[in-house]
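REQUEST FORM: STRUCTURE PREDICTION
Request ID: SP-0412
Submitted by: Lab K.M.
Chain count: 1
Length (residues): 451
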Amino acid sequence: MSPQRRTALWSVVAACALIALKLGTGLATHSLGLLSEAAHSGTDLVAALLTFFAIGVAARPADPGHQYGHGKAEHLAALGEATFLVLASLAIVWRAVVRLVNGGAPVHAAWYAIAVMGLVIAVDVGRTIASYRAANRYESAALASNALHFGSDLLGSIAVLVGLLLARAGHPQADSVAALFVAALVLFAAARLMRRNVDVLMDRAPADAEEAALAAIGEIRPAVDLRRLRMRQAGGRAFADVVIGAAPDAVVGQGHAAADAVERAVQSALPEADVVVHVEPEITTGAVRERAHAAALSVRRVREVHNVTAVNVDSGTELSLHLKLPGDLSLDDAHDVAEEVERAIRRAVPQVSEVVTHLEPLIEESSGTRPAAADVAVDRDAVERAVRDATGGEPADLRFLGTDDGLVVYVTLRVDGTVPLAEAHARASRVEALIRRERPEIAEVIVHTEP
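STATUS: Completed
RESULT:
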């Protein structure tokens, strides 16, 4: 039998003995404090049995149905224990209030009742210390909850002893007050147990363990690019899910070595931790922009995204972008959309440390007309001349559109498909510059290139 189970079994034996002792003495003396302590010890018996069996379950190795082991059995047992404590405390409160309001059988605070409580206190001290030491040695949540209980039992036993002494001195209501004090201790202990164990069962990140893991990873040399750290805890054991980045041209051995370094660092800070390290290629600035652009467009009411800029700094990647939103949105609503965009980008690109958005109203569609050929004859001649001067040939297509803002010209240029995009863009820019110089009154020039 493991040392943890021996400690839990000793608690079961002690709880049985204390129940018999408190119950018999309480019935003989009509002490509600002793009877409430007997009920409290009854819940301790159930809790100790749960702990005894839960530790046996938690110690089982992982299997195909429980691939992370059985550590959470301890926390389930502790949660069940807290539930019993709440029920017992409510029963104690009800009986104590009834006795304080309506009276009841007089308390016979005999000498043997005082002696029994002295013995109970001695037992409580012993089992509290034993459970506390075992819980620290084995990092057992169930044994820690037992230690907390037994500590509250000790305080309750002292309160009952004080109540008996006062009842012996002529204050019979002191026994009921002591019972209420015991109930308050039980409720407080139950609340703490529930909160702590629900956090574990809900996989709440253990803050201390996470800080220790982050500090250990930060000390690795050469430094690793930490993308994500997720942690949970069960049965006194930490589980870490780590994602790190590696250079795109790194070989498998280098990535594996970096993962091993992270695993050793975390386990040095958190012994027996279960660490899983995933290695990803580092993302280039261009890929960051693309993923951020896609994430921004996925947000409802974002109509257009442009001027996306990514800059690498020591703290991560800082990103800026322009968002076009419906012009009738209020500033408050537009700000909410921008914050949603920032959250979407951070989820899609975790290495982004800062997101700055510039908000612009979406320009509504305006009406346009096809001008008569005679009305744009001069403009057509100027545009064709500019295209010939810049490219040596005629435009593949040329159209004019009259809008509220002025004349818009659409020019299509034929360019050899093997020409680099940068060169094709430069030719289009030269054509645009010549047209604007020849006809500055044209509101907008759009030059399209195609092979």
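NOTES: The mean pLDDT is 78.
Reviewed by: T.R.
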